[in-house]
Write a structure and sequence with these properties.
Elements (H helix, E strand, L loop, with lengths): L5 E2 L13 H10 L4 E4 L6 H7 L7 E12 L2 E8 L6 H27 L6 H8 L6 H10 L6 H9 L14 H10 L3 E4 L9 H13 L4 E5 L5 H13 L3 E4 L27 H4 L1
Parallel strand pairs: 1-2, 2-3, 5-6, 6-7
Antiparallel strand pairs: 3-4, 4-5
The protein binds adenosine monophosphate (AMP) and manganese (II) ion (3 copies).
Length: 277
């Protein structure tokens, strides 16, 4: 089987992306993508919306990127091919939405303590019907002229170790993999080199991931070095993990990422697409 043009990781307005699910699909088609997984953070609402769209023009894979906790660190796990009507997953995501609402109140309180205006209503407005997260606070800061870029907002207020990075009890890595598996999905470790971990630490994460039933790992995404890529291919091979890849696209205004744009895999062996199509 020839691999189709694909992208297995991207975001819409259902979480912190700037395109609606329909706009996202249109852009993907424009970029020549044949198989697209929509993987919004901790929600399936974008995927659910697209079910009602007839003649999408590409094959849509139901996905979500779940926030997980491993040894007090935050790890992202993409679930691919999940049943978006799974009761277990829907209940899980409803709880997550509440957790994120409570967290947003605490983020706003912390930012006020740091001398910023109350950004809660602005951030909620920007998130709209989508799941709320730190990027919506970053956008609210830009709108109020507090910072000029989202990167700056994270660096000063919202990123790891900053006061606006409110620590909450995200579900454990094991729980996240369990709920993806229960919903018939494949658990994929997202962007492994983006956690600012040593490869030794990363190997410990991957060991837990595999023991808990994780099946695949992203080995190609924008911003990674060829060295990282080969390292990840080796780790995938050692752990019998299938390979996945995606752009993690959020918005057209980030010129360095676009749908379908990531270093291509040289081989189609062990590709997660074979298990999804
Ligand atoms: P949250 O889900 O609320 O924890 O927010 C995490 C999201 O924030 C990630 O999915 C990224 O889209 C975004 N993000 C994380 N770190 C940065 C950063 N340093 N600069 C810009 N965006 C970031
Ligand atoms: Mn994001
Ligand atoms: Mn992520
Ligand atoms: Mn993502």
């Amino acid at each position: 089987m020839e691999l189709p043009n694909y992208d297995l990781h991207c975001h819409s307005t259902a979480s912190d992306g700037s395109l609606t699910p329909v706009e996202l699909v249109e852009r993907a088609i424009g970029n020549g993508i044949e198989v697209l997984a929509l993987t919004d953070h901790d929600t399936l609402s974008g995927v659910a919306k697209l079910q009602n769209e007839k003649c999408l023009g590409l094959k849509l894979i139901s996905g979500t990127e779940l926030t997980a906790q491993w040894n007090r660190r935050v790890i992202h796990v993409v679930g691919l091919g999940v049943d978006f009507q799974s009761e277990a997953l829907i209940t899980y995501l409803d709880n997550l939405a509440k957790l994120r609402q409570e967290r947003s109140v605490r983020i706003a309180e912390q930012l006020i303590k740091m001398g910023l205006p109350d950004l809660l209503e602005d951030a909620k407005g920007i998130a709209g019907e989508g799941i709320i997260g730190r990027p919506h606070f970053a956008k609210a800061m830009i709108a109020q002229g507090v910072v000029s870029t989202e990167q700056q907002a994270f660096k000063q207020y919202l990123g790891t170790g900053k006061k606006g990075d409110i620590k909450i009890e995200w579900p454990s890595l094991e729980r996240v993999i369990e709920v993806i598996s229960q919903a018939g999905g494949i658990a994929v470790l997202a962007h492994p080199t983006k956690y600012k971990m040593t490869f030794t630490k990363l190997r410990a994460v991957i060991k837990s991931f595999v023991e808990a039933g994780g099946k695949a790992i992203e080995v190609s995404y924008p911003g990674m070095t060829p060295d990282h890529h080969y390292h990840l291919l080796r780790i995938a091979n050692e752990n019998n993990l299938m390979l996945s890849a995606g752009s993690d696209f959020h918005t057209p205004s980030q010129g360095w990422t676009d749908l379908g744009k990531f270093p291509p895999l040289k081989s189609k062996d062990n590709h997660v697409l074979a298990a999804l199509l």
